[in-house]
Structures are given as C-alpha cells and as structure tokens.
Design brief:
Number of domains: 2
Strand content: 5-15%
Strand order of the largest sheet: 3-2-1-4-5-6-7
Number of strands: 13
Radius of gyration: 20 Å
Number of helices: 16
Distance between the termini: 12 Å
CATH architecture of the largest domain: 3-Layer(aba) Sandwich
Order of helices and strands: EHEHEHEHEHEHEHEHHEHHEHEHEHEHH
Bound molecules: uridine-diphosphate-N-acetylglucosamine
CATH class of the largest domain: Alpha Beta
Length: about 375
C-alpha cells in the first residue's frame, strides 16, 4: 500500500514524526511519501523541528506559504491534487486541525482516496475558531478515525460515525514528548533562568492577539505576573507582527521580568516547559504536554477541544479576563494546583498502534 502523510504547520511535525518512525520499523512493503505543504516555512517554525525530531526531508514540498484562509487552503488543494494524481496513494494520512489538514483531506476525498485522520473527534464547540471548522469538516469526510482519548470517541459516535471506524490509539504528540524528554531536559536554559523559578507564555490565537484591547488586557495581567516570577515569552510570528503594529512592544521591553524571545524549536521549548513553574498559553498541544509533565497550565481561552486535560490533567481554563489570569497564576504560585493524572494510552505507543491499523490487510 502507498500512504501520503501530510504535515504543514508547526504542531503537525511532532505528530507525524513517530508515525514515520513506526512505518520505518513495521511497514515493510508499504510505501510512504511525506508531503510538506509549506503552511509554515520560517526556519524556526519548520526546518528546526525537522532537525530536532529527526524527520527526513519531505519527499514533496508544496511551498504554499501564508495568505488568507481561503487563499492558503486553495493553494494547498491545487498543489496537493497534482501530487495525488502523480503519486496515486491508497490512503492519505492527515493530522491535527490546521488548514493543511482540511485542504488535503478534501482534495483526496474528491479523488476517491481513503483518508485517515490522526487526532480525530476533538471538539471545542466554538465555531469561531478556524481549527474547529477544520476538525469538523475533516471528520465529516474521514474514513479511518484515530483518537487520542475516549471523549473524542464519544463525540464521533454522537455525530454518527460507525464504531468500527474509530480507533482509540493514544496521542502521537505524547509519543514524541516521551521520546525526547530526557534530551530536552539536559539542554541549556536561556540565560540566568533557574529551574522551576520561571513561567512560560505562548500566545497566537486570533481571538487573543488580533484585537488590540484584548491583547493589551492579557498583557497587563502578564506584566503583573512577571513582577512576581520571570516570564519567558517565545513570540509566534503573527503575534510579533501584531505587537509591533499595536505599538505594545516598548512597554513590554521595559519590564525586567518579561523576556520576549524568538520562537523556539522543539527540544529547547520542551526543555523550557519541563523546567518551568507554570505555563500560560492559548495553544492546544501545550495543554496536553503540560498534563504529561505535571506542570500547571493556565489556558487563556474560554473553551478547549482537549477537555481531558482539564478533567484529569493540570489544565485550568481561565479565558481572557485579566483578573482571572492573575488569580490563576497566584494560585499556581502558591501551590493550589492539582498534580493531574495521565490520560489512558498516552504511553508512547500511539504511532505504533496507528501503523498496525493502517497496515491491516482487510481494513
Ligand atoms: C496555525 C494553525 C493553528 C496552530 C498554529 C501553530 C490554522 C488555521 N492555524 O496558525 O491551528 O495552532 O499554526 O503555530 O491552520 N507566519 C510566519 N512564518 C511562518 C508561518 C506563519 O511569519 O512560518 C506568519 C505569517 O504572517 C502568517 C501568520 O503567521 O500570515 C499566520 O500563519 P498561519 O499558518 O496562517 O496560521 P498560524 O497563526 O500560524
């Protein structure tokens, strides 16, 4: 069988890495083609991840770059259609919820190619998030569903997906974390930071960074927190652009406790989070990683597509209200957090389970 595996944006790379590796170990006879859409293209958002994670160079690079959602999705679809027609795969494997995920799934489906979706069934219930639209649309046309937890299975069953098409396999992002954590912890910390005596901040969701008032209010809370504990803030390119455009950078740079740094690649970022006191974020994947690492995670969103991290992990949802963010940070600093438990099957073997299912002859 021939598989096309698609990766496009930063959070995809750690999800495909263990799948490619499991194919190398278990997939004799299967042909695997790695397609990079080029949705993320900066060295720090893409190439560095390939190097850190030991992902081979993509077999096909679509080089689509940035644009509006419609432009980006359309460019990926046009380029990926040609790839499917040339490569004629039996199955296209997409991961996560980014524009590359829906663009490639939709293209393949219309060519009659089977689609497998890794991280299927997650739902935030918030259709104002582009990722929620991508998740729902991708799952509406997926053939083989791989889920990270049983809440996702429940979502899919509720939406009418036949149970035999759903495979609860665990979390490939956590496969990657477990594989690299020792190396990540052994790496250097940015200058003069002491383990467990700093917080980490990431912010990039349009709902948090596109509106000047919302962004400024979140940053007010962060400035307060940085006066109690140093806050390291690796800045996503879209956030950097908006901070500049709203004129917010000078005030942030005046704060001695706040360190704005370039986006970090996988190992330095994991090493930073693993040795932090707490994380403040609007990312999806970081809610899962902190749960596994046992680090308190304060999520600056009203909802999450990963409620398992909130139910049994270390994650708390606080939204965007400055007072709520401050309060949650103070609680984390005073130790008023729960240790959290590990979700079932987040054990480093998810990719192996996926590849075994994909290789089943009678599937
Ligand atoms: C995308 C995903 C989001 C994911 C995030 C992680 C979608 C809809 N969104 O959001 O789910 O959490 O990646 O990073 O797919 N840019 C660069 N260099 C790059 C890539 C982007 O400068 O390598 C800048 C460009 O100005 C671009 C903007 O960031 O317009 C947004 O990039 P895009 O890929 O559209 O969305 P993200 O916000 O990164």
């Amino acid at each position: 069988m021939k598989f096309l595996i698609v990766a496009g944006a930063r959070p995809n790379f750690m999800k495909v890495a263990p799948i490619l590796e499991a194919f190398r170990r278990l997939g004799q006879g299967a042909e695997v083609v790695l397609v990079h859409t080029g949705q993320h293209y900066d060295e720090k958002m893409s190439d560095d991840f390939f190097r850190d994670l030991g992902i081979p160079a993509p077999d096909v690079h679509l080089g689509v770059g940035s644009g509006s959602h419609a432009q980006q999705t359309a460019r990926i679809m046009t380029a990926f259609e040609e790839v499917c027609q040339t490569q004629m795969p039996d199955c296209v494997v997409v991961v996560g919820d980014v524009n590359s995920t829906i663009a490639c799934a939709l293209t393949a489906k219309k060519l009659g190619i089977e689609i497998a979706h890794v991280e299927a069934g997650l739902r935030s219930g918030d259709m104002s998030m582009p990722e929620e639209i991508n998740r729902r649309c991708t799952d509406a046309i997926t053939d083989v569903f791989f889920t990270t937890d049983t809440l996702a299975d429940e979502n899919l069953l509720r939406e009418g997906v036949p149970p035999e098409r759903i495979h609860f396999v665990g979390n490939t992002m956590i496969d990657t974390l477990l594989r690299h954590i020792e190396r990540a912890r052994a790496g250097p910390l940015p200058a003069d930071l002491e383990p467990h005596k700093f917080a980490v901040l990431t912010l990039h969701r349009p709902a948090n960074v596109d509106d000047e008032g919302v962004l400024a209010a979140i940053l007010d809370a962060i400035i307060d927190i940085s006066r109690r504990i140093p806050v390291v803030f690796p800045v996503h390119p879209r956030t950097a652009r908006l901070l500049e455009c709203f004129g917010l950078l000078p005030a942030l740079r005046r704060e001695p406790g706040l360190r704005l740094i370039e986006p970090l690649s996988y190992l330095p970022f994991l090493g930073l989070v693993a040795r932090s006191r707490m994380v403040l974020t609007d990312s999806g994947g970081i809610q899962e990683e902190t749960t596994v690492l046992g680090i308190p995670c304060i999520t600056l969103r009203e909802n999450t597509e990963r409620p398992i991290t909130n139910r049994i992990g270390t994650n708390v949802l606080v939204g965007r209200d400055a007072a709520a963010i401050r309060d949650a940070a103070v609680r984390a600093l005073t130790g008023e957090t729960r240790n959290g438990a590990l979700p079932e099957k987040w054990d480093g073997l998810a990719a192996e389970r996926i590849v075994r299912v994909l290789l089943e002859p009678a599937r």
